[in-house]
Design goal:
Radius of gyration: 30 Å
CATH superfamily of the largest domain: Glycosidases
CATH topology of the largest domain: TIM Barrel
Number of strands: 35
CATH architecture of the largest domain: Alpha-Beta Barrel
Largest sheet: 8 strands, mixed
Helix content: 10-25%
CATH class of the largest domain: Alpha Beta
Bound molecules: acetamide, zinc ion
Shape: globular
Number of helices: 17
Length: 768
């Protein structure tokens, strides 16, 4: 009897090794998977039959067969016809689904029949089959659930990037990385081969690129504090891949259905290349590869766009690169070019004049177009970071959208192919759990659940242009990832979440199902000795206003571990209350909460201080809306009893177009005598205190009566400061209060934004 996938099945539970699993533990989950209650016994008597395949020696097939043998712990006979009763058949066929990557798999008590349109499809089917086996070899027959799978990927570009410039990773790890991708049906490896901190690919015509550009001084320091090389020091840290190694890795990837897209950065991020060939920069000053994030004054990161030798150099490099990498797309970087040096360079300025360009943005665009012409002349195309849109997009270029979705949307609307990799969801160098308990990372906060929630087709992109979104990829920048162990930790298991986002149909995606299936994969990582992140255990606390009552929701990314909490300021223990439903607050409270897994409290407790006051849980209304960029927790942020700190990203409502005017209506006449408004200044983020605050009562006839005012000069104080402004007035009965704070500030003289308006930020409007 056949049953649908998301029903809890006893046969399925058996195969999951996890009593809460609701489906077989496949990741990415197939688009159609119907499971029967029987099983197939895979033992050494089963033969593997390849009726219409050239040979089991074909690279992709032989990799699959040897993985199967390793995972089973015994070898099955392989032949073209198959004389045994039980068989695993791999057949090239023409499926109803025309995708080159589609496959079908039918498992019954007699055997396994796999059909695919291509060897790629067979390879994907075999990855699915491997996930149906026990994680480690048991050297004995294994039971596999009888099922029927029909599967094909949602997106054509299922990518993972790796930066090998900031830290060098040897070929052994590159192969391991490719294995991770292959096992989860990812198909693009974007190899970031050069940047300011190291050049990593042998180029025969320019040997100094690796003799000089691949090495830097070894600094055992946090990236941001790594001082440049001093006189007398030797550059000993680094490495590079020889062309022989590159060829081997390209073949290794190809056999696993993975295209390697090499990235040769230009015109910026090129300090390492210019350390080897300083004559190609604007100032031509000699320089050395930098070991971290400190950029010494005068260092040259850009190729000189006015120097013709630069194009001879880059074209020769690209020629060798294209001989090594068969990828149709060649990544030419293009991001984060500081064009100041071009502004001061006579050659660059002459180029602008001669080519009748408007400015340095157009000079960058001209540079990229020139490179594109060369790449196109060799039968390939370029892809670049979304800055290549600025100053005009080259005619055949594809765009990688990293600064949010906007670049991708703009390029797709121009009918250019795009790959989505926004920092919000796809930067795997970001923290994935509470930063206070995690190894140091570059910043950000991109949890497993956030990756899983990613939708590569931007909501704002009209459907006519969806076809231009090739897919998405995650980027692993390695400034804060010096070791193989840390690289594994940052990728696993976020890559598994992304693989399901990119492969499985939207309707299939289900966080609880994924979380539960993932457990089996985590056990595999443990068995293999791969580092991985257990998850984000930090308890998120969210005040919600329901029926005029403030309640606090507690949430973690774990679907099964309990949350313990206290209301008296003490740290939670395993004897504290277990969270079951949103907590109603009726007095000032310090709430603390912590998750426990297997009876062990994880990470550090989360805490939130709630201060009761007369406007607590009243919903304020605003005459002019707050900015969509700083909506905090909505209007109720001002009255939720939680005070904003000097971190302007949390708990503050921001205005950038007008002053703030809010009204509070009390359910009945209420005796009041003071208002306190939290105001934030953050000079570097263009946020300034308001000059005036006025508190008025709105009387029954609709007129207003001013109760108190506050005036100050905008102080030019730097840093982030909170000022809780108190406005007192004689005690009186009030039903409606109006508070005005403004005007919208102007950035003061000497501020980088001088001439522009700044922001107003407010949080908690306390009424006593
Ligand atoms: C990038 O993250 N600079 C593309
Ligand atoms: Zn120049």
């Amino acid at each position: 009897m056949m049953k649908r996938i998301f029903l809890a099945l006893s046969a399925v539970l058996f195969f999951c090794g996890n009593t809460n699993a609701q489906s077989i533990a496949l990741i990415p989950y197939p688009n159609s998977c119907v499971i029967a209650s029987d099983s197939f016994l895979l033992d050494p008597s089963v033969s593997i039959v390849l009726p219409n395949l050239v040979s089991s020696q074909d690279a992709a097939i032989s990799i699959c067969l040897s993985s199967l043998q390793t995972q089973l712990g015994f070898a099955n006979r392989v032949d073209q016809k198959g004389a045994t009763a039980k068989q695993i058949q791999l057949v090239l066929a023409q499926l109803d689904n025309a995708s080159q990557d589609a496959y079908e798999m039918n498992i019954d008590q007699k055997g396994i029949l796999i059909k695919a349109n291509s060897k790629a499809g067979l390879f994907y089917a075999m990855q699915t089959l491997l996930q149906l086996l026990p994680n480690t070899s048991r050297h004995t027959a294994v039971k596999i659930p009888c099922l029927t799978i029909k599967d094909a990927p949602r997106f054509a570009w299922r990518g993972m990037h790796l930066d090998v410039s900031r830290h060098f990773f040897n070929t052994q790890f590159i192969k391991e990385y490719i294995d991770f991708l292959a096992a989860y049906k990812m198909n693009v490896f974007h190899w970031h081969l050069c940047d300011d901190q190291g050049w990593r690919i042998e180029i025969k015509k320019y040997p100094k690129l690796t003799e000089i550009g691949a090495w830097r001084v070894d600094r055992d320091k946090e990236w941001r504090d790594a001082q440049p090389i001093q006189a007398g020091e030797k550059a000993t840290y680094g490495g590079f891949y020889t062309q022989k190694e590159i060829k081997e890795i390209v073949a290794y990837a190809a056999a696993r259905n993975i295209t390697i897209v090499p990235e040769i950065e230009m015109p910026g991020h090129s300090i390492a290349a210019l350390a080897a060939y300083p004559n190609l920069s604007c100032t031509q000053v000699p320089q050395q590869v930098i070991p971290g994030g400190i950029y010494p004054k005068g260092i040259q990161a850009n190729y000189c766009a006015g120097n013709d030798s630069v194009f001879v150099f880059l074209q020769s490099i690209l020629e060798e690169v294209m001989q090594l990498f068969p990828s149709k797309l060649i990544h030419i970087g293009g991001d984060e070019v500081d064009k100041t040096d071009w502004k001061h360079c006579a050659k660059c300025q002459a180029r602008i004049e001669q080519e009748q360009l408007k400015n340095e943005e157009e000079l960058q665009s001209w540079f990229i177009r020139k490179i594109e012409q060369y790449v196109v002349s060799k039968g390939r195309n370029i892809i670049g970071w979304d800055e290549i849109l600025e100053g005009g997009l080259a005619p055949n270029a594809s765009v990688m959208s990293w600064r949010g979705e906007q670049g991708g949307i703009a390029a797709a609307k121009m009918k250019h192919h795009v790959v989505m990799t926004p920092g919000t969801h796809c930067y795997f160098d970001h923290y994935q759990a509470d930063p206070s308990t995690e190894p140091i990372a570059i910043g950000g906060f991109t949890t497993l659940k956030k990756v899983y929630s990613y939708e590569p087709i931007p909501a704002a992109l009209p459907s006519a242009f969806h076809q231009y979104v090739l897919g998405a990829q995650a980027n692993l920048w390695t400034e804060y990832i010096p070791t193989v162990e840390q690289a594994e930790y940052m990728v696993l298991p976020r890559m598994q979440a992304l693989s399901e986002v990119l492969w499985s149909a939207n309707e299939i995606r289900n966080w609880n199902s994924f979380s539960s299936r993932l457990q089996n994969h985590l056990r595999k990582f443990e068995q293999e000795g791969w580092r991985y992140c257990e998850g984000n255990f930090k308890v998120a606390m969210k005040p919600v206003l329901e029926d005029h009552k403030m309640r606090v929701q507690l949430e973690t990314e774990s679907i099964e571990d309990p949350i313990y909490y206290t209301l008296d300021g003490s740290d939670p223990s395993l004897f504290s209350a277990i969270y079951k439903e949103p907590i109603t607050l009726s007095s000032s409270t310090l709430l603390k909460a912590q998750l426990a897994r297997k009876q062990v409290l994880k990470g550090k407790p989360s805490s939130l201080n709630f201060t009761m006051h007369k406007a607590f849980s009243l919903m304020p209304s605003f005459e002019k809306p707050y900015s969509n960029y700083y909506p905090a927790n909505g209007a109720m942020t001002l009255t939720d009893g939680v005070f904003g700190t000097n971190d302007h990203h949390a708990n503050w409502l921001g205005w950038s177009k007008s002053e703030m005017i809010t009204t509070l209506s009390f359910p009945k006449d209420t005796l009041l005598q003071e208002v306190e408004l939290g105001c934030l200044q953050n000079y570097a983020s263009w946020i300034f205190f308001p000059e005036n605050i006025t508190v008025s009562a709105i009387l029954k006839d609709g007129s207003t009566k001013e109760l108190a005012t506050y005036k100050t000069d905008i102080k030019n104080t730097k840093g982030a400061i909170v000022n809780r402004v108190k406005l007192s007035f004689p005690v009186q009965k009030i039903t409606k209060l109006k508070i005005t704070a403004g005007p919208l500030p102007a950035c003061p003289k000497n501020h980088p934004g001088y001439g522009d308006t700044g922001w107003l930020f407010f949080d908690e409007l306390v009424v006593r």
